[in-house]
Structures are given as structure tokens and as C-alpha cells.
Amino acid sequence: MTTSAPASNLLAVAASLGLFALTIYLLVVGEGVFIPLVLAIFIAYLIIALSHMVERIKVAGKQLPGWFCMVAAIVIFLLAIGLIVQLIAGNVRDVVDAAPQYQERLQDLLANINTTMTSLLPLSGPVNLTTLMEGLDLRSLAGRFAGALQSIAGNTFLILLYVAFLLLEYRTFDRKLAAMFPAKERLDRVRSTLAEIGQKTETYVAVKTVVSLLVGGISYVALLIFGVDFAGFWALLIFILNFIPYIGSLIAVLFPTVLSLLQFGSLGIFAMVLTVLAGAQVFVGNVLEPRLMGKSLNLSPLIILIALSVWGALWGVTGMILSVPITVIGTIILAQFPQTRPIAVFMSERGDVR
Fold this sequence. Notes:
With about 350 residues, the chain is an all-alpha fold. It folds into 3 domains: about 35-120 and about 125-170, no CATH class; about 200-295; about 295-354, no CATH class. It has helices at about 5-30, 30-55, 65-120, 130, 140-155, 155-170, 175-180, 185-225, 230-240, 245-265, 265-295, 300-335, 340-345, and strands at about 60, 60-65. A two-stranded antiparallel ribbon has the order 1-2. Helix 2 (about 30-55) crosses helix 3 (about 65-120), helix 2 crosses helix 12 and helix 9 (about 230-240) runs antiparallel to helix 10 (about 245-265). The longest helix is centred in the first third of the chain and has 55 residues, at about 65-120. It is globular and about 75 Å long.
């Protein structure tokens, strides 16, 4: 008996590692299948969150019917998608076409900086910044971003199809759970787990969407006031990148501010654009979002960074956007089993998982 226990533990560890490796392999190989499905799940949560917001509206002191709230939420979502598609179609091609002009301005700017540094600093030879920045091809970067948007657009029909079936299943899902788990104690536990996953995911998706719209709107107005080219495109980019923890807001501010410098050649306008955009990000990210989100995520910042890196390596930018809600769901599931509960405690911010 004493020798069988270590062997059994070793076998369990080997099986766990094998299952983990198989999961990673399937996530990489099945990227084209899993990404639309996962996006559809979170879009469904967003629509459900919108329907709950509509439910709070009362007409003549009475609450609106549930079916009406759901239909209204779907209409609002489709109108928003239509606006985004129109914005993309009207701006992405213009940005790609204008990229070579800004590439030339960038090279001229780097050449001027190079000349200034050489004249001011006691260096033995010129500082060839232009050579160092040869790898920065604005047209290539714009083309890659346009390709990523086109790839998502190509899966739009499949994603919306998934969303439609998920919403249809939403009304009957609880009855299916009751049939799957006849034992009341187990059924209550599964319902509690799914309710927690739904509540946290819905909160994250709803709050993140609202604050991203807010910071995108503030940035759009600011860029219009300063006269920066393609203000709508940059506002859309800021909205999307704001879903990526930590680095997203930094990149979102960097691109339009650098463009303003290339467009106007003025450090004063560059500084003002940077101040306004960075100020909007700091206010929304550090003041408003924590108040709306509260402590509902309960994720360690270190775990968020690790999740960002892992999901980014697996699924690119889409993986970065989805990294936080996927990790939240994983933490909740791990907390339900005694064997994996310590992992959930380690991943949490406060260590108090249920």
C-alpha cells in the first residue's frame, strides 16, 4: 500500500500534464473554430447585459416584458455593429493608402533628429536613427491591422449564427440542467457556479464595453478638435485596444499621438494630444472603471499579465482581448474542486475564493 500511493500520484500528475498539453494543442490547431465560438459567447453575454439594462426602464410604473427587452438589446447591438462596420469600411482603406506619406514624414523626422543629436552631442560619428528604424514600416503595420479586421469580418456570419443559437438556448438551459443533474445538491452547486460565471462575465463585458466607448468617444472629440487625420479610425482602434489589459491603453495613445507629430510637425500639438488622450485613459482606467467593476474579478495582476501573454501567444490580439474573462471563468471552475482549489487561491487577488 505504501508504494502504490506515490505511483498513483505520479500517474495523476502525468495524466494532468498530458491533458494540459492536449488542450494547448487543440486550442492552437482549432483556433479557427474556437475564436468565433468564444467571441460569440461574450457577445451573447453583452446582449444579455444590455437586456438587463433595458429591463430597468419602466413605462407607466410597469416593467417591460422580457422578450421586448431582449429584442431591444439585439437591435441596439446590431445598430452598433453596423456603425462599426461602416466606420471600418470608410477609414481603413484611407489609412492604408496614406501610410506611405506618413512613412516619408517619419523618415524625415528621424533624419532631423539624427542631425540635431550629432550637432549637439560630442559623438565620434553620426547616430544613424534612420537605419535603426528601417524596420518600422507604417504601410505594413496598417495593412496587417486591416487584414486582422477583415479576418474578423469574414467570420461575422458564423459568430452571429453562434450568438443566435446561444440566445435561443438561454431560455431553456436551466431546464436542461435540471434534467442533467437529478440530485438537488449537485444541481444547486452547478447552478451556483454557472450563476457566478455569468454574473462576473456579464459585469466585465458590460463595464469594459461602456468604459471603452467612453474613452473612445473622448478621444474622438479631442482628435477632431485638434484636426488629427482619421479621427474615427483612431477612436475605433482605442475602443478595441482598451479591452487589452495594461498594454492596450498605452498602444492606443501612442499611435494617434505619433501621427499628430508626423501630420503637424509641432511638438506643442503633439504634447497636447498626448496629454488629453493619456488623461482620458488614466481617468477612465484608474478612477471610473475600478468604481464600476469593483472587486468582482478577483484576479491577481501578475496572473492577468501571464494570461495576457499566454492567450496572446495562442490567439494573437483576439486572445489578448479575451484573456481576462477566460481566466476569470477558469478561476471559478478551479475553485469548485478540492484538488484544484489551491491553484484558484493562487490566481485570485485576495485569496478568498468560494
